[in-house]
Design a protein that fits this description.
The chain contains eight helices and six strands; from the N terminus they run H-E-E-H-H-E-E-H-H-H-H-H-E-E. It is an alpha+beta fold and 242 residues long. It has one domain: Ribonuclease Rh, Chain A. A hairpin with a 5-residue loop joins strand 5 and strand 6. The longest helix is centred in the middle third of the chain and has 13 residues. It is globular.
Length: 242
């Protein structure tokens, strides 16, 4: 039975949290214990990125295709926990849950942050296998949604855990278009439509991210017009590794 994205309303988040945490690891087909990972240092706000506190009108659930991200980063010290293979092998990971506002100027860097404690890093590692990424997402986006990082990551786990993913291995072995990839996600997720999905494809034609547009009640919605969509007929390749 498929999890239904449209059934996750704000009122259901507290109830669903009892059942969801292990589901958020579904795309980590081999995930380490992160036992050697300690706290995550706070992410500093870049000087060229302004602090913006704005009313939230919706959200974006951004999911990164890890095999493509790690394709040229196997030996990167910066991305070791996600890409070296020592701490696990990952398919889709959560890039972040981002608050949106009217227009293109989304809320960001709403308040200063401290280091994320080890318990938060370990609990969310299989969903987001990079302490640096966790810290950045909490500082840039999470502080505009919640007062405590535990709350932000709990909601993120619920939303990521509610997504059913298509068979990416099968899709990677045949000619594929952006429209067909969107339809594959629609087929697995009740309440999701093609116009609720945005894809990020790099200049070489490889899939980098799948982004779902959510309303203020966390239900899937049609993506706002300013979020440019990849054409349905655009070819898409999915990197599965050597």
């Amino acid at each position: 039975m498929h999890n239904s994205l449209c059934n996750l309303t704000i009122s259901a988040i507290g109830f669903a949290a009892i059942f969801i945490p292990s589901v958020a690891q579904a795309q980590a087909y081999q995930c380490g214990s992160a036992s050697q990972i300690k706290s995550a240092a706070p992410a500093p706000k870049p000087a060229d990125e302004p602090r913006r506190i704005k009313p939230i009108t919706g959200y974006t659930l951004a999911m990164s295709w890890s095999p493509e991200f790690c394709r040229l980063r196997k030996d990167s010290k910066r991305d070791k926990t996600q890409c070296s293979g020592d701490d696990g092998s990952f398919d889709f990971i959560l890039h972040g849950l981002w608050p949106e506002a009217q227009g293109t100027a989304y809320p960001q860097w709403c308040s200063a942050t401290k280091a994320l404690p080890p318990a938060i890093v370990k609990r969310n590692f299989c969903m987001m296998p990079s302490p640096r990424l966790m810290s950045n997402e909490w500082a840039k986006h999470g502080t505009c949604m919640a007062k405590r990082p535990e709350t932000y990551f709990r909601i993120s786990r619920i939303m990521f855990g509610a997504v059913e993913f298509p068979d990416m291995d099968r899709l990677s072995r045949k000619p594929l278009t952006a429209g067909a990839l969107r339809e594959a996600f629609v087929a697995e997720n009740e309440g999701l439509g093609p116009d609720m999905i945005r894809l990020k494809i790099n200049h070489r034609g490889w899939l980098e991210e799948v982004r779902l547009c959510l309303g203020p009640n966390f239900r899937p919605r049609r993506c706002p017009n300013h979020m440019r969509a990849v054409r349905d007929d655009m070819p898409v390749k999915i990197w599965r590794g050597a």
